[in-house]
User: Fold this.
Amino acid sequence: MKSILVTGAGGQLARTFKQLSGQYPDYQWRFANKVELDLTDEDQIAKKIAEWAPEVVINCAAYTAVDDAEKNPELAYAVNSSGVKALAEACDEQSALLIHYSTDYVYHNDLNRPLTEEGPCQPKGVYACSKWAGEQQALRFSSRTMVLRTSWVFSSFGKNFVKTMLRLSEKMERLTVVDDQIGAPTATDVIVRATMELVENYIDGGRKELSEIYNLSNSGVASWYDFACAVMELAEKDVKVVPIPGKDFPQAAPRPHYSLMSMEKIKGILKEEPPHWRTSLKKCLTELGEISKTQTN
Ligand SMILES: NC(=O)c1ccc[n+]([C@@H]2O[C@H](COP(=O)([O-])OP(=O)(O)OC[C@H]3O[C@@H](n4cnc5c(N)ncnc54)[C@H](OP(=O)(O)O)[C@@H]3O)[C@@H](O)[C@H]2O)c1
Assistant:
């Protein structure tokens, strides 16, 4: 049986892998949380990967607090870059495939058109720079690597924009949300399904060496304001959402104005195009009990 190790088991993406793992019964799944596999502990990484000998390592562990990273650069780099290097080396030792996730924030360029994998990357801020460094480590130190750049991730698990909007809707009648930052929301189940299709292609293709970067998001485009309006509309919250420019909502880390990623490369591989983000948002709100099942059918 093919074995998969998922790191960062407490996070929203890893929890979705766990939720959907039953749909992939041909794999033996292992989920390791921060204690069982700490990306800041290089010795533990080498030891555990050698002991567990997975054929595929799906790295969902990351330091993801974008603004806090500005105050904690050492930890952000330790997890997002040095830890990824150690994981990549350990994977290489086992000839395991490493799937590593990165972010649209690595692009941060001024092209104002959908960003392609080969396009320029000018990450700004500690989180984005540490994730960019992590990509380089994954690609350099493991000879079987896929880096999936994703954006604006949401799910019914953990912390994310959708859950923040729902929480705020309980105590506020009016919310201001930035409307001059454009991207694509991405549901974790879309990431899981696409990842598993890539993994299956890799295994069917004879487990060759590879070094690839793919963009991966839901279809469609949105500003944070559009996304917030959709949450309130679909969950029928009586909240007025007011658009504001990003300069009126200062955040510690810089944010790109335009980070919609081109999906052409991955669309050439996946059997089906990822759904529109509104379709995934409805599903997420249903899981959260904010929309009744009869309403979504
Ligand atoms: N969330 C987004 O909007 C977004 C956007 C683009 C790309 N991504 C990327 O997508 C991937 C998955 O993100 P996510 O949204 O699932 O993040 P998440 O919910 O924050 O999960 C990350 C997990 O990693 C764990 N972790 C932190 N430090 C660790 C360490 N030293 N060793 C092992 N585990 C550690 C965290 O544990 P604690 O919570 O206990 O620290 C958490 O369980 C990440 O690579 C992220 O950079 C996310």
Remarks:
- The chain has a mean pLDDT of 96.
